[in-house]
Amino acid sequence: MDPHSGSSASASGPKKDKKSKKNYEDGEGKKKFTLKRLIPDELERFTSMRKKNDKEKPGHVPGQRHSSAANYEINPQAAMMHEHSDEYVLELFEKMLVDMNLNGEKQQPLRAKDIMIKREMVSQYLHTSKASQNQRESSKSARVYIQELKSDYRDTQLLSCLESLRVSLSNNPVSWLQNFGAEGLALLLNLLRKLQEEKDEYPMMGVKCQHEIIRCLKAYMNNKHGLKSMLESEEGIPLLVRAINPAVPHMMVDAVKLLSAISILEHPENIHERVLEAITEEAEKRDIERFQPLIAGMTIQNIALKGGCMQLINALISRGEELDFRIHIRSELQRLGLKDLLTEVRTIENEELRVQLTVFDEQAEDDSEDLKARLDDIRIEMEYPSTGKNCPSVEIQGLHSDS
Questions:
Q1: How buried is 191 (Cβ within 10 angstroms: 0-12 exposed, 13-18 middle, 19+ buried)?
Q2: Which pLDDT does position 130 carry in this prediction?
Q3: Dist. CA 220–CA 179, nearest whole Å
Q4: Which residues touch 160 (CB under 8 Å, ≥6 apart)?
Q5: Residue 128 to residues 91, 93, 167, 318: CA-CA distances in angstroms?
Q6: What is the pLDDT of residue 82?
Q7: Distance between CA atoms of 99 and 177, rounded to whole angstroms?
Q8: pLDDT of amino acid 211
Q9: What is the structure's pLDDT at 384?
Q10: Low-confidence ranges of the chain (pLDDT < 70)
Q11: Exposure letters 358-376 (e unless 16+ CB within 10 A, then b)
Q12: What is the 3-state secondary structure (H, E, C) of 173-197?
């Protein structure tokens, strides 16, 4: 069977299906679909604190051993920190980790540090935070942006506001994003909906503003607080789906990558089902096949868009628990011409695209093998209804050789 055709995609029953899905999520040889892989630029934006290089310090003597404290500047916070209890320092330390938006992997080695090092890290962080706060006092606060989003700005003025907001969402600590909060998110989504509903056929400035809002959402979702708020919003996912517009390739790239990241999240509500439902509803409104925009995106001469479309396709298929679901999605895509498109796409030299194609091929092959095993079981059951699985192995081998 052709591993890329929908009818060939399959699973050898519930047990193997479950195993293959677990391996896929655990990354046993298939570490392609992780949130970090999908949006690495955001997730790598925050790095662990680094000590200053000794050679940058005046008066440094080569070979001289220094305590950890010598690697930090002396400041009032450092002196005060040594007067506080360990419990208070640990409390501030945890707040520091949250505010820096470090993931669990980067938090663990920091938590393992000695309490004295933690004191020094907290004091340095407080010193840096105060300097940053003084610098930000002359810049806009989250409340100012909220007021501006309520001001019915248009065209150039609106675009300037959104560009500035995106920079602030990207560079400020989590506490700043929390002040922007659900109210700011609701204003962004409301503005995006209004721009999408405008009657003009993609006025250039309106499209630029839509794209900038999506970039703001991308920055806003780069932490647990923002991601949680976005998932709790009823409009968030449908509006991102509406931005899957091949007529605006650069905006579509960001939209499909965000939806890919959302779809693979481990969440009790099965977020991929919400994404697929939104895709289906939007297609019904447009009176088109639901995956037609993704297929159209694959035809555009934009490698990033081709890769983004494949990411979303893989995300939707990979999260399906049932073999029949995965077969159905893959078959639907093949009927729209995906198989022929992939023949051309495979000739493109691009690492990100190659990774997505490998994921697609491996999953299709696994499902093909599983479907064949399932059909063999049905065939055996039909020819040996009384014995079923207890029929002689030699006879089973004979059946397989006849196929």
A1: buried
A2: 56
A3: 12
A4: none
A5: 18, 14, 19, 43
A6: 59
A7: 10
A8: 96
A9: 74
A10: 1-83, 127-139, 199-202, 385-403
A11: ebbebbbbbbbbbbbebee
A12: CHHHHHHHHHHHHHHHHHHHHHHHH
Angle at 335 (CA atoms; ends 330, 341), nearest 5 degrees: 85
Residue bearing tokens 């499909």: 256
Name the burial class of residue 399, with classes exposed (0-12), middle (13-18) and buried (19+) by CB atoms within 10 angstroms of its CB.
middle
Residue type, 264: I
Those residues whose C-beta lies under 8 Å from the C-beta of residue 18, and which sit 6 or more positions away, are: none
- Could you tell me if 216 and 162 are in contact, meaning their C-beta atoms sit under 8 angstroms apart? yes
Query: Whole-angstrom Cα distance, residue 122 to residue 86?
Result: 12
Reduced 3-state DSSP string for the chain: CCCCCHHHCCCCCHHHHHHHHHHHHHCCCCCCCCHHHHCHHHHCCCCCCCCCCHHHCCCCCCCCCCCHHHHCCCCHHHHHHCCCCHHHHHHHHHHHHHHCCCCHHHHHHHHCCCHHHHHHHHHHHHHHHHHHHHHHCCCCCHHHHHHHHCCCCCHHHHHHHHHHHHHHHHHCCHHHHHHHHHHHHHHHHHHHHHHHHCCCCCCHHHHHHHHHHHHHHHHHCCCHHHHHHHHHCCCHHHHHHHCCCCCCHHHHHHHHHHHHHHHCCCCCCCHHHHHHHHHHHHHHHHCCCCCHHHHHHHHCCCHHHHHHHHHHHHHHHHCCCCHHHHHHHHHHHHHCCHHHHHHHHCCCCCHHHHHHHHHHHHHHHHHHHHHHHHHHHHHHHHHCCCCHHHCCHHHHHHHHHHC
Q: How many CB atoms lie within 10 A of CB 126?
A: 18
